[in-house]
Amino acid sequence: MEESNTKLTKKGGGRLCCICNQRRAALKRPKTLEQICRECFYEVFEEEIHQVIVDNQLFKPGERIAIGASGGKDSTVLACVLAELNRRHNYGLDLFLLSVDEGITGYRDDSLETVKRNEVQYGLPLKIVSYKDLYGWTMDEIVKMIGLKNNCTFCGVFRRQALDRGASLLKVDKVATGHNADDIAETVLLNILRGDIARLSRCTSIVTGEDGPIPRCKPFKYTYEKEIVMYAYFKRLDYFSTECIYSPNAYRGFAREFIKDLERIRPRAILDIIKSGEDFRISTSTKMPEQGTCERCGYISSQKWCKACVLLEGLNRGLPKMGIGRSSRGLNNDPKKDKYMKQGNGTKSIENKQCGSLDF
Amino acid sequence: MACNSSTCQSNSGCYNREEEPISSKSSDSNQQSLCVKCKVNEPVSGTSDDGRFCRECFRSNLYGKFKLAVTSNAMITPSDNLLVAFSGGSSSRVVLQFVHEMQQRAQKNFDASKDRSLPVFGVGVTFIDESAYHQSVPSCEIDKAIEEIRSMISNLAPPAKQLHVVPIESVFSLDSLDGRERLKTLVDSVSDATGKEDLLLYLRMLVLQKVASENGYNRLVLGLCTSRIACHVITATVKGQGYSLPADIQYVDARWEIPVVLPLRDCLTLELKMLCHLDGLKTLEFSNGACSGINGLVSSFVKLLQEENPSRECTIVRTAGKLTPFHFNRIPELNDSNVPLATRRRQKRFNLKPSESISSESFCPLCFSPLSKSDLLSFSSCQNYDILDAASCSSCRFQIFPKDPSSMEHFLSILPQPLLARAKNCSNGNHSSLRKQIQDCLLSDSEDET
C-alpha cells in the first residue's frame, strides 16, 4: 500500500501530507512550509488557537464573550473557530457577535449583511452599535464635513469606544478581536519606527485593557494572516472583502510590505518579531503617559478629555480640525504635523485597525 | 544648547526647530545663504539638512558629538591604549581621524604640562583582511588597499600608530593556508544566507578581540554610526533578539575581554560621508557585494524610511535606547593600583552614575549575546544541543547551527578554538546551575542499572 503510494507521488507529483502520511498534501503551510492535507490543516490551525487560549487562560467557563465582527476575513474566521472550539472543548462560553456600524454607505451596510448571515450560520446572537446612535454622526456625514483627510482618525477613535460601549450593553466579560500575527508584528515595527515606547511595551500583550472596563484579547496573536485567508478559502466561509470606500489602500503601508517581504524569505520572522516585542524590557525611568478617565464621558483617557470627546466637540462646534495632530487640544494647523499624522494614520495603534477587511 | 546633550540624537531635527524661526524672520535672501550657526560663512552645498552649515561649523558639530560620547562615557582615559578597527569605509575613516585629533591634543597638553602626570593614550589601527570569505575580490585589489592604508597611517602626524593587518582566518590560530580552507568549510556548512553573514560578523569580532588582546590594547574602537545601529535594531527585532538587543547598541560594550566603544553612535552615515568628502579623507570601497537575506532587506527598508524622513534613523535608535541596557554596558571602574591616581580620578569624574541595568550571567557561545530565561529553558528541554554543552540563543540555533544532531558534531569540530572555549566557559556556569535545580529528579547511571 505504502509503496504504491510513493509511486503515485513520483508520478502524479502529489506528495503525501507530512502530518498524517495518508492523504495527498493540498497546501504548503505558510507558517512552517510543511506540505499538508486540508484536514490536517484545519486540525493544526484550530488546535494551535486552542493551545493559545488555554496557555494564556484567555477565557473562563461561564464567561460572556463578544467577538468584534466586521464581516471581514479575520473576524469571520474568528467567529467560526471560536464557535467550533467552544463546542469541541467545552469552554462553556456565551458567544456574541458585536458589530460597529460606522454609517458608510456602499461599504459598511454591505459588510453588515455578511455579519447578519454569520449570525445565522454560527448561531451567535448579533449586536450592532452605530456611530449615529452613539455620537449623532455617521461617517458619511463626517466625511461630508471634513473631507477625505484625517477621516480615518475619527473613525478609528470612535470605533474603539463604540466597541466598548457595545460590549457593556451586551454585558460581556471580554471582547475578542481578530488581530493576527501579521498585525501585531507590524505594530511592533511601527512603534519602533515612530518612537512610541509606551505602545511598544504593551502592543504584544495578548490581553489588553485589564484595568479598563472590558478587557480585550487576541486569540489570533500567533496566527498568520495567510493561514486565516487559507482557512476561509478552503472552508468557503462567507466573508466580505471590499475595502473601505473612504480609504482604499490605507492600511497597506510600507511596514506591511516589509513584513510580507520578510515572510517570503523567512516565514518565522513574523513570530520572531512578536517574540522580540515580548522580550523588550523598557527602562522604568522612561516616562509613560498616565492613564486616567475622561472628565466628560468617563471613558479611559490619558488627557482631561478622551480623544473621542475632543473630536466630537470639534465636529459639533464646526471646528473639525480640533484634536487632529499631535497636541490633543485646540486648533493645530502645522502642516508638518498633519503629514506625520496621516502617515501613522490607521496604523497608529492596533486598536485603530483600519476599516474591517484587510485582504490582499 | 539642547543639541549638545547626549540624549538628543536628532541633531539635524533640533537645528531645524531652533533655527527655523530665525531664518524665516530674516526674509533677506543674503541672510538665508549663510551658515545657520556662525552666520558668517557660506554653507557647504549638500543634499542633507547639514548643507545649511558652513564647513567649519559642520565639522565642529560632528567632532562635538564624538567628543561628548567619549567624555560622558569615560571611553578614553590617559593611560589607555586604543585599537581602532579600520575597514576603509567612511565611518572608520572618520573615527580614526577624530581619535587621532584627540590624541594630538592630548600630546600638546602633555608637552606643555609641568608634572606630566597624565600620559597620552596610545592608538593602534587594525585592518581585517576578509578575502578568505569574499573569494570574489581579487588578491591584487586587497594588496593595493593594504598598501594604501599603510601609507595613510604613516602619513598621519605623530604620535606614530602601529598598523596590524590580520586575515580573518587567523581566528583559527593555525597557519593561514589551512585556515582559509577551514573558514570556507565552516561558512559553507551554514545554509542560511543571513546566518552566513552573521557568522562572519561574530568571527570578525573574535579576530578583533584577539588582535587587541595579543598586542596589549585595552579598548576597541568601532566606527558604528546611527544609521548602522538603526539597521541593527530592526534586524535584531526581526531575528527575535529583542532581549539581547540593548546590549549591542550602547556607547560601551564591556562584555568582551577588551571593552568595545562606539564613539560615533550619534552620527549619521550621510554626515560621515560628507566629512570625508569635505576633508578629502580617502576611503576604500570593496566590491564585496551587497548584503542578501534579512540584513539586505532591512538595510534597504531603513534607507527608504530615511529618505522619506531624515530623522527616522535617529528615532529608531532613540526608541531602542529606551530599552534597559545590561550591567556590562559601561566602562568598568578602575581599582587597579598600577593605574596612576590622576587617571583614576579623571575617570571617576566622567563615569556615569550607575543606572538600572539587567545583569545576565549566560551568553550564547556563538554570537555572545546575553540569554534570556526562556532561551535557557528551551535549551534544557532540547536534547540536540547537549553536544555543545551550552545554551545558545534561538536565533543562532535557527540560522547558523545545523538542524540535525548528526551534522552538529561536524559543525562543532570546525568551529574556531576561542568559540569552543567560550562555550565550555559558559556551560560550566549555567549548565551546572541548571543541573542543580533539577538534581532531585535525575536518576544516576547506577540507579538506572539496578
UniProtKB/TrEMBL annotation, chain A:
Look up the EC number in the record and give it: 2.7.7.-
- One GO cellular component term, please give it: mitochondrion
Q: Where is the Cytoplasmic tRNA 2-thiolation protein 1 C-terminal domain?
A: 292-322
Give the family this protein belongs to, as stated in its UniProt record.
Belongs to the TtcA family. CTU1/NCS6/ATPBD3 subfamily.
Native species of this protein?
Acer negundo
Per the record, the major location class is: cytoplasm
Region: Disordered; residue ranges are 326-350
One GO BP on record is:
protein urmylation
The keyword Zinc appears for this protein: no
Q: Which CDD domains match?
A: CTU1-like (cd01713)
Recorded protein name is Cytoplasmic tRNA 2-thiolation protein 1
SUPFAM superfamilies, per the entry:
Adenine nucleotide alpha hydrolases-like
- Functional summary from the UniProt entry: Plays a central role in 2-thiolation of mcm(5)S(2)U at tRNA wobble positions of tRNA(Lys), tRNA(Glu) and tRNA(Gln). Directly binds tRNAs and probably acts by catalyzing adenylation of tRNAs, an intermediate required for 2-thiolation. It is unclear whether it acts as a sulfurtransferase that transfers sulfur from thiocarboxylated URM1 onto the uridine of tRNAs at wobble position.
UniProt keyword terms in alphabetical order: ATP-binding, Cytoplasm, Nucleotide-binding, RNA-binding, Transferase, tRNA processing, tRNA-binding
Q: Which gene encodes it?
A: NCS6
Q: In which pathway does it act?
A: tRNA modification; 5-methoxycarbonylmethyl-2-thiouridine-tRNA biosynthesis
> What are this entry's molecular-function GO terms?
ATP binding; nucleotidyltransferase activity; tRNA binding
Which residues belong to any copy of the tRNA(Ile)-lysidine/2-thiocytidine synthase N-terminal domain? 65-248
From TrEMBL, chain B:
Q: Which GO terms describe its cellular component?
A: cytosol
Q: Which GO terms describe its biological process?
A: protein urmylation; tRNA wobble position uridine thiolation
Alphabetically list the UniProt keywords: Cytoplasm, tRNA processing
The answer to keyword Disulfide bond applying to this record is no
State the InterPro entries in the record: CTU2 (IPR019407), Rossmann-like_a/b/a_fold (IPR014729)
Q: Which GO terms describe its molecular function?
A: nucleotidyltransferase activity; sulfurtransferase activity; tRNA binding
List the pathway annotation: tRNA modification; 5-methoxycarbonylmethyl-2-thiouridine-tRNA biosynthesis
Localization annotation:
Cytoplasm
According to the UniProt entry, where is the signal peptide? Answer: none
Q: Where is the composition biased (Polar residues)?
A: 1-14
For region Disordered, the annotated ranges are 1-29
Presence of keyword Metal-binding: no
- UniProt similarity note: Belongs to the CTU2/NCS2 family.
Q: What does this protein do?
A: Plays a central role in 2-thiolation of mcm(5)S(2)U at tRNA wobble positions of tRNA(Lys), tRNA(Glu) and tRNA(Gln). May act by forming a heterodimer with NCS6/CTU1 that ligates sulfur from thiocarboxylated URM1 onto the uridine of tRNAs at wobble position.
* UniProt protein name: Cytoplasmic tRNA 2-thiolation protein 2
> Which organism is the protein's source?
Acer negundo
Source organism phylogeny: Eukaryota, Viridiplantae, Streptophyta, Embryophyta, Tracheophyta
